[in-house]
Amino acid sequence: GENVEQHPSTLSVQEGDSAVIKCTYSDSASNYFPWYKQELGKRPQLIIDIRSNVGEKKDQRIAVTLNKTAKHFSLHITETQPEDSAVYFCAPPGGYNKLIFGAGTRLAVHP
Amino acid sequence: EPEVTQTPSHQVTQMGQEVILRCVPISNHLYFYWYRQILGQKVEFLVSFYNNEISEKSEIFDDQFSVERPDGSNFTLKIRSTKLEDSAMYFCASYGGIETQYFGPGTRLLVL
Q1: CA B95, B35, A108 angle in degrees (round to 5)?
Q2: Based on C-alpha coordinates, what's the Rg of chain A?
Q3: Is A98's CB within 8 Å of B48's CB?
Q4: CA A46, CA A44: separation in Å to the nearest integer?
Q5: Cβ atoms of A106 and A87 closer than 8 Å
């Protein structure tokens, strides 16, 4: 939390390709690492999260990997589909569990 | 599945007017938050609220902003004298202490 950087800011892939988004955080005390998907005009929706006691978590086509030593965690989407097109945010919590959002990655999946 | 609700969904106001944005958090949650998102930008933390008081606020949350939990269910954000730059989507979120924060659908505020 507190200082969060997210890359890339935009990502364009062909349907069926994989997409990877990386998030770097500064607070070494962080122990919870969520990824949110936001469609235009909608609320952020949690799509996957991981806690610091595991290094990877997978849910169908979506996975999150965590490197606590390097203080970064990544979102992996495999076999991308047009409906995956959205803005994705990492949001590790800071003090009082407030979420510190990254700048977002606009993913475009082209048919 | 329980949900966070917010009203109104849209609010248009004149600069200098007061607005109150309302939220009903998930009933057994104890931590409440307001965030805002200016169009095309990231979600920014405004304030957190626990045990009937503010636990943390950001630099954005100046004296023009206040929050209240007037009864056991509603959680409100008041902007006393709106400015053009307050135009944004405002999200309420609640947290039960274990899983993750749940966001409401947002109130789109437009200050003219």
Answers
A1: 100
A2: 13
A3: yes
A4: 7
A5: yes
CA quadruple A52, A57, A59, A61: dihedral, nearest 10: 120
Minimum Cα–Cα distance from B56: chain A residue: A96
Are B101 and A99 contacting, i.e. CB atoms less than 8 angstroms apart? yes
pLDDT on residue B83 = 96
Q: Is pLDDT above 90 for B88?
A: yes
Chain B: closest CA distance from residue A1 (Å): 12
Calculate the alpha carbon distances from B58 to A7, A58, A100, B47, B71 in Å: 24, 34, 11, 6, 24
Cα A46 from Cα A67, distance rounded (Å): 20
Asked whether the beta carbons of residue A104 and residue B42 sit closer than 8 angstroms, the reply is: yes
DSSP assignment, residue A98? -
Q: Taking Cα atoms as reference points, which of A12, A22, A18, A21 lies closest to residue A71?
A: A22
Nearest-by-CA chain B residue for A45: B103
Taking the C-alpha atoms of residue A1 and residue A108, their distance in angstroms, rounded to an integer, is 27
* pLDDT at position A93: 87
Average pLDDT, stretch B19-34? 94
pLDDT in tens, B95-105: 988 778 999 99
